[in-house]
Amino acid sequence: MIKTNNDLIRQLVDSGYLKTPQIIRAFKKIDRINFVPKDLEADAYQNIPLPIGSGQTISQPLTVAFMLELLEIKKNDRVFEVGFGSGWQTALMAEIVGDKGRIFAVERIKEIWELGKFNINKYGFLDKGIVKIYCQDGSKGLEEGAPFDKIISAASIKFKGKNFLEAIPSVWKSQLKIGGIIVTPIEHSIFKFRKVADNKFEIEEYPGFVFVPLVKNEDY
Ligand code: SAH
Question: What stretches of 33-166 show up as alpha helix (H) in DSSP?
Answer without folding.
Answer: 61-71, 88-97, 110-120
